[in-house]
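I had to read the description of the data format several times before I understood it. The format is easy to grasp once an entry is in front of the reader. For illustration, here is how one protein appears when written out as sequence plus structure tokens:
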Amino acid sequence: MGAPGFDVERIRKDFPILARELPGGRPLVYLDSGNSSQKPTQVIETMRDHLAWHYGNVGRALHVLGSESTDAYEAARDKVAAFVSAPSRDEIVFTKNASEALNLVAYAFGNPIGEDERFRIGPGDEIVISEMEHHSNIVPWQLLAQRTGATLRWFPVTDEGRLDIERLDELVNERTKIVSIVHQSNVLGTVNSISPILARVREVGALMMVDASQSVPHQPVDVTELGVDFVAFTGHKMVGPSGIGVLWGRRELLDAMPPFLGGGEMIEAVWMDHSTYAPVPHKFEAGTPPIVEAIGLGAAVDYLTAVGMDQIKAHEKELVAYALEALREVPGLRIIGPRTAIARGGTVSFTLEGIHPHDVGQILDDVYGIAVRVGHHCARPLHLRFGIPATTRASFYLYNTTAEIDALVRGLHHVQKVFG
């Protein structure tokens, strides 16, 4: 299974929780990494060691602990920059999650203290997203439109779960100020092609942002190759801790953007009537940052790099191809999204005829120890588009196996027996 040299059983041993038995002696089958991934010992121990032996505040103290914390924190920035091939470490801004990174960019538009024309927006201007976005890439832009009088528009989704760009030239036009699109859908698994949209964005002189929360953990992502202006992702989906996210942005744009939050560390100098601001990235990192979380993210980057992102991608491609085939055995199961592994990540959402997803998830957990997610997965408009209130979602990662997919299929057959 997977690329040569990819040993999933060895990898599983790095994740202590995967050996856990649930009440009743049920082995844990964790198929919810699209929600939040599990953490390897290497990340857990790195964070524990820093808390136990090296912890101090960053950028403020001259003593040994402060210096060690600052060095470790900034080393994590270097690791993240290299992981996504950022041209400069200063283009990596630490946030608390991807949602904050998306909000940070949305806040820059229409801000009265902003002076750059690219971030001026008002009535007559347009913002473009898509129907397959997570709420984190919908609500900030709704708020921006409400705040400024701009118009929010969106790409529709096809019946096959692909982005419909047939009206690209109409949707992205001379009134467009920014386009913000998900790279990989957290519901459909669809991996969107960014290049045709970006080409049109450049034609009209707009900016483009990508929500890469579901792609950076699962495939090689090179921000320079993507060619967009901003990329957001989060630590807890990539074997790192929660409480830490990343905004990558082109340096000239970050320089032009007003601060998002005010406080310590983001300033250059403060008077009673005005302040000047630190250069990026610190301009956007007010207050005491998530120090240990950032260091944990650096350890997660080390771990994923050692395994190999190409190998992780190949492993997940085999898993999702296996799952798509295996789920066909379940009568009345409807997959929401692409039915093939082409341009698709390791996330499969589905409905079972006549059975609510909440009941599916509960029985899978209670009887088989299978952890899946149920609901609308913070993508309610997408579910409305398909005429369903909720789905069951199984999402795979580097530590999952085909045997766990077989367990899922057996569990679904049992669910159907329970409900007659």
Q: What stands out?
A: The chain has a mean pLDDT of 96. The chain is about 35% helix and 15% strand.
